Every structure is written in C-alpha cells, then in structure tokens.
Amino acid sequence: MTHLVHLTNARLATGDRLVSGDLWCDPEAGVFVPPPNPASPASAIDLQNRIVAPGFLDLQINGAYGFDFSEDPAGEHAGISYTERYGDVRRKLIATGTTSFLPTMTSQLPDRYHQNLPFLGPSNSRDPYDGTESLGAHCEGPFFAHNRMGVHLPHAIHASGSTSEPKRVFETYGASNLVDSDLLSVEKEPGSIPSHVRMITIAPERPGGLETIRQLSQKGIIMSIGHMAANYQQARAGIDAGATMITHLYNQMNGHHHREPGPLGMLGGASDVDSQNEAKNLKQSGNSDAINRPYFGIIADGNHVHPASVRLAYLTHPEGLVLVTDALLLLGGEDGTIDWLTRRLTKKGISVKLEGTDIIAGSCVTLLQCLNNFRRWTGVSIPVALQAVTSRPATVLGLAHIKGTLQPGADADFVVLREESVPGQSTSDLAVDQVWKFGVKVFDESAT
Amino acid sequence: MTHLVHLTNARLATGDRLVSGDLWCDPEAGVFVPPPNPASPASAIDLQNRIVAPGFLDLQINGAYGFDFSEDPAGEHAGISYTERYGDVRRKLIATGTTSFLPTMTSQLPDRYHQNLPFLGPSNSRDPYDGTESLGAHCEGPFFAHNRMGVHLPHAIHASGSTSEPKRVFETYGASNLVDSDLLSVEKEPGSIPSHVRMITIAPERPGGLETIRQLSQKGIIMSIGHMAANYQQARAGIDAGATMITHLYNQMNGHHHREPGPLGMLGGASDVDSQNEAKNLKQSGNSDAINRPYFGIIADGNHVHPASVRLAYLTHPEGLVLVTDALLLLGGEDGTIDWLTRRLTKKGISVKLEGTDIIAGSCVTLLQCLNNFRRWTGVSIPVALQAVTSRPATVLGLAHIKGTLQPGADADFVVLREESVPGQSTSDLAVDQVWKFGVKVFDESAT
C-alpha cells in the first residue's frame, strides 16, 4: 500500500475561492488522490493555514539563469552539455513555483529548430527531481511581420520570407517536431497527437498564415497570433481559423484606435454587425461573450505594459488573461551587460534593454512577481489571480484535467504560499514556501 | 380626487430586468404613484405586454430639425423667434423617446453664451406639451486643447486662450448662468444651487483647468473632461479634481497606448501602484473597482466609434457607459449640404461630414438608434441597454430620484416600446409606440 502524503490545515486555491481543507497525494503515482480510508498510512503535514495552489505554468519563457533555450547545442560552455545545462535551469526554476512550462524558442534559422526542439519537447519523465517539466516547446517565430520583430534575430525572420505557407512552416520547424512524435506522450487522452512543439506564435496576415493556423490547430498544436501587423479583421481571421490565443497582448502588434480597434478589439468578442452599416462576419448569436474571444498572454513585469492597460484587458475579458514571463536567460542573473545572439543586452533590476537604448528586449521576472504585480494592479482576490498562472494556461493547452488543478487524478504539482504584507501596499504579496512536483517536495524555503 | 392613469399588462424596465406588472401615474402632479386604493378612479390602459421604460435622457445634443441651440437668437429665421423654434424642436424631439436633455452649445464667443444660456436652462415647466424638457445646458467648450477642436469654431477656442482659470471661465459663460439662478429650480433638494448650466466639457490639462473643475463641481455643475490633449495622469487629475465624466469617449482625445493608456485607461479604475516601480497616487484600497471610475459618453452611431471599441469600453466599465447622440441640427433632416457656422456640412444617411472631406462633423442619429446599435454590438439585454439612456444619465446629473426611473414619486416620463425583429439580426430592435411626459401621453405612433 502506498504511503500517501496528507496536507492538513491548508487554504486550497479552488476556482475563485480559498477553501480551508485537506489534500492528499500519492508520491509514487505523482497524483492527487481522493480522501482515503482513514486506516491508510499517510504522513500528515500541518501547513498552518498557508495557501496551497497548483504549480505555476509559464507558456512563454525563453531561458533563465544564463541559459537560452535557443542556444546552439554544439556551442562551447566549459564542457557542460546543452542537456546538462537545460536540466540545471529547470531544477533552479522550479524553486520559483513554476512546475511546468513551454520552453520558448525565439526566431531562428531552420537548423536550430531541428537541433533544439527534440531537447525541448514534453519531458516525458515523472521524476520529481528533474525540475520544471516541459509540456512541449513554444516556437515564437520566425513567421512574423517584418515590422514587428521586436528584438528577435532579423536574419531569421527575413529567412522565413514573407509568406507562411504550411509547407514552409513544416520545413522550418521539421515535420517530425510538429506531429506523430509518439515517444513523447504527455496527453493522457487517446487520439491526441503530441509533438515536441505544443505552441506556435505566428502573424496571421502573412499569405498562407490562415491555412497554416487551420492545419496545425487541427493537429492539436496551440496556435497563438502575435508579432503581427494584423488589423482587427485580420486578427479575427486568425482566431476564426483556429488560433486560440494572442501572444503578449499589446507588445509587437498594432495598437488600438477607436475606429480600427486592432487585436485588442477582439477581447470583447464579436457581434452581428461588426462593420459600419453592413453585416460582415454575421454571427448567429445575440451574446458577444460566447463568440471567439481569444486567450491572451500579458507580461506584467511593470515595463512592457502599463498597469491601467492590464486592468483594461483583464476587465474586458477576465477569463482570457494568462500571465507569462517572456523571460530571457537574464532571469535570475546579476545586473550588467551580456552578449545575446547578435546583440548586447543590459539588465538593470527587472528591466532588460538593448545596450545603450530604451528598447525593451524582454523581461527577467518570475511568474510569481507577475502574479504579485497583477494582484496589486487589479485588486483581484488571491485565488482569482492564481487562475492566471495555473488553471487558465492549463486550459489553453487542453490539459486542465492534469495540470493547474488540485483535483484527484491530476498531477500533484503544487506550491505552498505565504502572504507577506508590504508597507504602503493594500494587497499582500505572495511568497513561495514550498514547491512539490509529482507529490514530492522539491523545494522548501525554510531549508535554504 | 385625481383621476389616475393605470397601465396594465406591461413589461416594466426595472434595474436589469423586465418585470411584468402595472404602473400608476398622476397626470396632475406629473409623477408616478404607488398602487392606489382599488376604489380610486383610474383609467386603465392595456399595454399588451409591451415594454415600458423611463423616458430617454440625452446629455449631449447640439440641435435637431434644422435648429442649432448655439445659433444667434437675433438671427433672421422667417420671423420665427429663437424661443418658438426651440419649442418646436423640443415638441418634435420628444416623439423619439427623449423626454429630457441637456441642450448643448458648441464652442462660442462669450456674448453667445450670455445670450443663449438663459433660453437653454432648466425648463421650469411641468406642461407635458412643452416637449423635451431641458435639465440645464451643456457647455461643450470653448476651453479645449487647441489640437482637439474637432469641428468646433476655431476662433471661439482661440479666443478662450490657452488657460482655463476660473475667472476666465466664469466670465465666458457669465457667472449668473453658472450659479445662484434661483428662478430655475429643477432639483427638489434644498440646498442645491441650480443654474442654466448643468454640465461643462473642459480639457483638464490647460492651466487652471483643475481649479475650475474643483470650484464648479463643488457648486453642483457636472464637469466632464473632453476635447483634450491629456495623457493618462492628466486625465486622472481631472477626475480626482471633481470631474465625473468623459465626454464622447475616444473622440477628440489621446488614443490608448499600452504604456501611456490615455483617458481610456481610467475606465479600469486605479490601484496602489500605477507607475513603474514606484508608488505614485497611492490609494488605500485593494479594490480598483471602487476608485474614481468616470462615467463616459459614447456616440454609438456606427461612424464615430467601431463596435469593438464600444464593447471594450462597456465590458471594462459597464456601469459607466452613457449613450449620447452628439446630434447636430441635421438630425431629422434630409440628406444634402448645408451651411453651419463658418462651415458646410454634408449629411448622407446617418453620416455628417465636412463638405468634400472624410472628417466626421457630428451625428444625426436619435438616442433610440444608438440604443439599438448598442444592443446589437454588445448583445446585452433590453433592460440593461436601457439603463445607458435612462437611469445612468440621470445618476450622472444627481437626478436619479426624479428622472430615469419608474419609481413612485419620480416624474412620470416614460416610453412604450415594441420589439421589432430585423432580418439577419439576432437581437430585436426597439421602436417607440408611445411617449408620455408628466403622466400625459404626448405621442402615439398609432395616431400618426
């Protein structure tokens, strides 16, 4: 009989509430279990009214602790292999509460995708000590609008051409990275076709983009629109074709104008009559809330987006907001300037800019910091804020039954949080006390 | 004993619901009354399940049926006086369902305010046959940003200078039009100081603007910010100083940028930390919803603002949205081109543009048309949509106890509406069957 772990005296983040109660998990199977027969052997752990939340899930993170997921696996790093470095980063990252992620590659030439994606696919390991679990890679680029590259490698985006025909997209990433990769099953449903790549960010307005979105979304890959020049109608066409998300809303896309609302305009849904004096895109529903409202990532680091803009997006579509870090290898590093790809980046606090400029080059915040910012800026409750880093990203991936939840049967990935009051601030901050992966405690603040 | 009017078999727009029930009003007192003693004499009218809503209230309308509220009262109009013409317009307008309004003057030189405002103040009449009742004038301008004039008279705005010092504002409108005008009492509360002017639109960023907002809002005048160059912080300063509304949100103001959210950014409220990495404007509340969220007018004519932008604003702050027409004298007129002030305007359908250009010069829609557009674009229920033209504008004016409600004691201004299905459209449109003012039926579609 398995020795269960019994957590008592906890406040469990469940839906939009904190529910006082107990939680059981089975460290052998790595899952939460229903309340067992009282006679079952169990180690009881008193959490002293602390908060238990599902482990955090980051859908967009480019690297951390000096490691860039897009770096050359054949590169020289003091004799330490890409695999070892990748493992090391995941074991560090899990201590921040992020128990799963989509390791994200910036825009690269095809060879780099062919080399790196097999490393970055679903972890296919239930060893709790392997660190943050990959649920598959996120390919952010290179099929972008040429005027919305951000700091991605221009030559990689130029090499992608100006179209996004399915054939070119398959060749760029490598078809075997996209489908039929039967070695790496993280989904438990029969019929799902996992692959190394779980998510792709693509500009929908490039020729062939909608067909690519259609084909890949049908194969189970999560398509997100971003780094785009799309206007409102072009962005909506991307969502109508099967994309379900907007990559880092506001950044690297058209802004809002009251008569050309751009991608932001989609957050309110659609309606019967969306154009002036004529009925385009007729929808047979009177309720805009039900129609094609995309999820959207937000980088709530305090640099990328103004707090008022975070509130605007959140209040327009509360069930759509997903916090992402978009963190670079500078996350967890010291302030200073480093070489990165063909650029030089300067980190100062939470800010990362191209050296000598005011151009934002990415973030170096943890998902926990984003969560605390989000709470401060919106005033939403702790459990509602937690949804943006737990159940909602899991839902985006179609994994809400096994990730981002404390329900029996789901993977027992969770964090124990304490509340810390901050002078001059009406909301408390959350801090990570413990991190558990597959029912095993892998980080304990009190032990550090 | 008064002979009461008893409306039966109606669906009453009450809060966010349509409630089947009866309604009584007293045509002598002009108010709704509680269900009377069954022995009271009453004329029963069967409304056959039609909708009864409070009469519509338009906070911003510049003219209609060929009459401009800002026109020269000494001007030549075939021997028909300003007073007669103004009365004629009000008797026509009430048939559209708008039982009360703020007749709105565009930017003018001081003399024009001194001449016209005494005509446009609160009607101070309870004669149901006087047409749409004025609740006081709305002075839209001339204290505007010089780059946000719209089609207002440039010389009037230039004459206002670049500041908005209280002394200059009082002189421009005439102090007697702003305060202590004890002849014209529409408020029933003791201590209120009504005046000819009930609302002023002002750009908050002009020097002296905040002090003017502070002084006039303390005197009971509703201050609305608009036609402004204000950034987010400057707009917020206007609201913090006492302004409670944004004039036609989106039009004639800075747009939204994700790092400089502009006036739109205020719709989500404020929070502890509204700037990057430092605590400015510290608010001691954890709930952004409670903090200084302004009401906002929206011109939902299908020209001024995209439906998606209306949804965005509505969903961000549902309790803030007020539909206004911003209608010109062309409302109710034929298509064609006319002289207006120093300009020429071309009306084509619902569109009014400067002759030969694509510059929107105003609207010529009724509040009912705006209401139907708003329903189509958002899919909200009939009673919820009605709030944006009834109880909410009444609340903006501090008159929710006497206008925009069917409660006993309130003025018995109401409309009887029928639902009309529209081919290819999932929501019905509303049409006006009857209009009642002070408990007397003044318009009946079936009689026309």
From TrEMBL, chains A, B:
Keywords: Hydrolase, Metal-binding. Its cofactor is a divalent metal cation. Residues 379-440 form the Amidohydrolase domain. One of its GO terms (molecular function) is N-acetylglucosamine-6-phosphate deacetylase activity. The keyword Hydrolase applies. One of its GO terms (biological process) is N-acetylglucosamine catabolic process. It comes from the Eukaryota. Zn(2+) binds at residues 140, 227, 248. Pfam families: Amidohydro_3. The active site is at 326 (proton donor/acceptor). The keyword Transcription does not apply. Binds 1 divalent metal cation per subunit. This is Carbohydrate esterase family 9 protein. It comes from Penicillium canariense. The lineage of its organism: Eukaryota, Fungi, Dikarya, Ascomycota, Pezizomycotina.
